[in-house]
């Protein structure tokens, strides 16, 4: 449906869009995946030294991040209950993580050697780890503790994978050349099943409820064993080489396999085969997903969804069923939080990377003749055209930290005079001069409250700085002077928001502050405009929504807050009237079933326009309002515009309707540069994967 306005739209209507494609983040490989069915949470470990916690209850989104020590790299993950997360790494450490406080809870070194695998029995009383030297340790996790229980007889070669059976009385391990079944009580081997050759490595294991063992190996075969007597039931080639990962659905009738050559995801269905009077069950090829170009290291099942990740760092979610609305959703390895900051008048853009920040000057377009700029508004909604670039974007400077440090937040002041960025252990504050270009870091006479921050905000005038301490949820206010920073006051957000704060926004007028936390709460504080500006009081909490908050924004000059949720809902709340003024139904935008709304950009001249974006699209939504036939002309290409539009508005008069969608690729951030200019920061898949080796090439035609 396309409507053409007879008059120029309120607020202009035409927007010049800057596509900033020079954000070249490198892929961060996914090492391990673990899904918690009770908490609807997916744990993702990356080689960069972090564990990501993705909320999978509605549309998947990155909820929280646990940052590890510099030398740590998690090799495997496992869940117990809804809140206990365990990891093992090659430094030999077994760690239990506090997923609320995002820090270590317990740490053990069971063998002193590198740990390769971990598994927890179905009763959630025991934990098993396998080591480089062939040791298998059993730990007790009862009573919310982690204690040593027993050590199995040492085996030859490293233990690369392990799985408990459903009873918890037996443990199956995979190593070089064989699969072993152990008695958990005695710590002795019950059966040893050898493979086709001694140098064949067992990479992955699954144990079914009917005492069937499924093993994936380094030569591309999946072998099925009977766990009762250790006999082989079946064997078939799945890949050319290296079946790194296996996964089962909850009903245990779908087996998912993937690995290295080729990096395909192949799904097998358990099928009954009848031959004359006999009947047997076999794994038959069901579907195939060609969604990765590089090695797949880990798989997990979340209901009917297949979650996969590997060398490319892209978290891919695909369907295990043949007939589904959408088969694949791919989430790029973006950093948690804001990765871009703008100084609009100077047209400068600050980009955050894991170990550096970069300052860029945006490109400028060729100015068109005045006659062309004043042409009639006779183009349909969604019409676009390219402009000629007069001056290309320019990289002005780059500020680096040590390779072992991670930059968790960064911001550029609106007047382009200050750059502030924070690692996990220190905060750096620098004075920026453009003519000539120079950066001076402030290191002396800094207030003690200038501590590492997870969120950094400058006020619109650039005269004040707000820093959020993630350990206490305390917000500190600072006054910026030409050569110094002075602490003014602090605000305890933790009194209202107990969870990790994920979003923090301040109104442009400086009158309101809003914050969203991981426990689905949104709090609003009122900042006093007269007298001591830093004095603040808690105003209200929005009604708790069942889905998590994925984006926040505040109108310019209006006391209204706009929030987006993981179930696709978008709401507008009036802070003075304390009432919702606009809200949409769930998944008004169909794409939000697969990608959540990551950002909201509002029009200062037209409060009825809401620009939102996901990772794949930019959308323009319009508040529902009464339509008059003389205001609109129905485009000849559209059908039943009036009937459909009026029906939608009648059903939800306080809602919104989708006006326009623009396809993007891995969209990170959208800014308003001026009243008629927008900036979107994105990265193409080709640029993201450019630093990786050439993908595996396989024959696509004439092959199975």
UniProtKB/TrEMBL annotation:
<dbReference type="GO" id="GO:0000462">
    <property type="term" value="P:maturation of SSU-rRNA from tricistronic rRNA transcript (SSU-rRNA, 5.8S rRNA, LSU-rRNA)"/>
</dbReference>
<dbReference type="InterPro" id="IPR001680">
    <property type="entry name" value="WD40_rpt"/>
</dbReference>
<dbReference type="InterPro" id="IPR036322">
    <property type="entry name" value="WD40_repeat_dom_sf"/>
</dbReference>
<dbReference type="InterPro" id="IPR015943">
    <property type="entry name" value="WD40/YVTN_repeat-like_dom_sf"/>
</dbReference>
<dbReference type="GO" id="GO:0032040">
    <property type="term" value="C:small-subunit processome"/>
</dbReference>
<protein>
    <submittedName>
        <fullName>Blast:Cirhin</fullName>
    </submittedName>
</protein>
<dbReference type="InterPro" id="IPR046351">
    <property type="entry name" value="UTP4"/>
</dbReference>
<dbReference type="Pfam" id="PF00400">
    <property type="entry name" value="WD40"/>
</dbReference>
<dbReference type="GO" id="GO:0003723">
    <property type="term" value="F:RNA binding"/>
</dbReference>
<dbReference type="GO" id="GO:0030686">
    <property type="term" value="C:90S preribosome"/>
</dbReference>
<dbReference type="GO" id="GO:0034455">
    <property type="term" value="C:t-UTP complex"/>
</dbReference>
């Amino acid at each position: 449906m396309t409507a053409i306005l007879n008059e120029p739209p309120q607020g202009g209507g035409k927007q010049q869009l800057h596509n900033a494609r020079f954000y070249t983040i490198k892929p961060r490989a996914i090492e391990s995946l673990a899904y918690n069915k009770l908490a609807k949470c997916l744990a993702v470990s990356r080689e960069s030294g972090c564990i990501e916690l993705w909320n999978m209850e509605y549309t998947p989104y990155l909820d929280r991040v646990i940052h590890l020590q510099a030398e740590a790299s998690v090799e495997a993950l496992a869940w117990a209950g809804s809140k206990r997360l365990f990891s093992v790494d090659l430094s030999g450490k077994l760690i239990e993580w506090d997923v609320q406080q995002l820090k270590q809870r317990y740490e053990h070194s069971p063998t002193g050697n590198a740990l390769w695998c971990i598994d927890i029995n179905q009763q959630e009383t025991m934990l098993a780890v396998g080591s480089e030297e062939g040791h298998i340790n059993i730990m007790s996790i009862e009573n919310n503790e982690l204690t040593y229980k027993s050590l199995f007889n040492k085996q030859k070669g490293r233990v690369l994978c392990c799985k408990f059976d459903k009873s918890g009385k037996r443990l199956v391990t995979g190593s070089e050349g064989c699969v072993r079944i152990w008695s958990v009580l005695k710590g002795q081997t019950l059966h040893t099943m050898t493979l086709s050759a001694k140098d064949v490595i067992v990479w992955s294991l699954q144990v079914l409820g009917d005492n069937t063992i499924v093993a994936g190996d380094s030569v591309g075969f999946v072998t099925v064993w009977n766990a009762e007597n250790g006999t082989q039931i079946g064997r078939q080639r799945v890949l050319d080489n290296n079946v790194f990962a296996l996964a089962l659905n909850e009903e245990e009738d779908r087996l998912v396999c993937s690995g290295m050559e080729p990096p395909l995801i192949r799904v097998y269905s358990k099928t009954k085969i009848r031959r004359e009077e006999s009947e047997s069950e076999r794994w038959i090829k069901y579907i195939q997903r060609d969604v990765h170009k590089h090695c797949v290291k880990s798989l997990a099942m979340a209901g009917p969804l297949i979650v996969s990740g590997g060398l490319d760092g892209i978290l891919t979610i695909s369907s295990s069923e043949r007939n589904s609305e959408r088969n694949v959703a791919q989430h790029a390895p973006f950093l948690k939080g804001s990765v871009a900051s703008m100084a609009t008048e100077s047209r400068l853009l600050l980009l955050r990377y894991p170990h550096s920040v970069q300052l860029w000057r945006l490109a400028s377009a060729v100015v068109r003749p005045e006659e062309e700029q004043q042409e009639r508004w006779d183009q349909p909604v969604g019409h676009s055209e390219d402009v000629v670039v007069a001056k290309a974007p320019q990289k002005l400077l780059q500020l680096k930290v040590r390779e072992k440090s991670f930059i968790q937040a960064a911001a550029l002041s609106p007047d382009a005079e200050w750059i502030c960025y924070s690692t996990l252990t220190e905060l750096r504050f620098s004075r920026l001069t453009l003519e000539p270009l120079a950066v001076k870091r402030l290191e002396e006479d800094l207030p003690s409250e200038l501590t590492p921050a997870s969120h950094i905000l400058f006020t619109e005038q650039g005269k004040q700085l707000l820093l959020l301490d993630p350990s206490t949820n305390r917000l500190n206010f600072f006054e910026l002077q030409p050569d110094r920073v002075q602490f003014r006051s602090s605000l305890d957000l933790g009194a209202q928001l107990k969870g990790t704060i994920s979003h923090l926004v301040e109104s442009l007028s400086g009158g309101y502050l809003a914050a969203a936390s991981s426990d689905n709460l949104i709090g609003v504080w009122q900042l006093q405009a007269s007298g001591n500006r830093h004095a603040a009081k808690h105003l209200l909490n929005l009604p708790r929504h069942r889905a998590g908050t994925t984006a926040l924004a505040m109108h310019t000059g209006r006391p209204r807050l706009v929030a987006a949720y993981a179930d696709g809902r978008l709401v507008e709340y009036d802070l003075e009237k304390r009432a919702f003024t606009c809200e949409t139904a769930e998944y008004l935008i169909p794409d939000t079933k697969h990608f959540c709304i990551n950002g909201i950009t509002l029009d200062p001249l037209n409060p009825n326009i809401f620009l939102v974006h996901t990772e794949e699209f930019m959308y323009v939504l319009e508040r529902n309002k009464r339509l008059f036939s003389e205001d609109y002309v129905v485009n000849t290409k559209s059908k039943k515009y009036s009937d459909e539009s009026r029906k939608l508005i009648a059903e939800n008069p306080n809602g919104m309707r989708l006006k326009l969608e623009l396809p993007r690729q891995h969209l990170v951030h959208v800014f308003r540069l001026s009243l008629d200019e927008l900036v979107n920061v994105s990265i193409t898949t080709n640029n993201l994967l450019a630093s990786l080796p050439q993908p595996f090439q396989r024959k696509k035609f004439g092959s199975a």
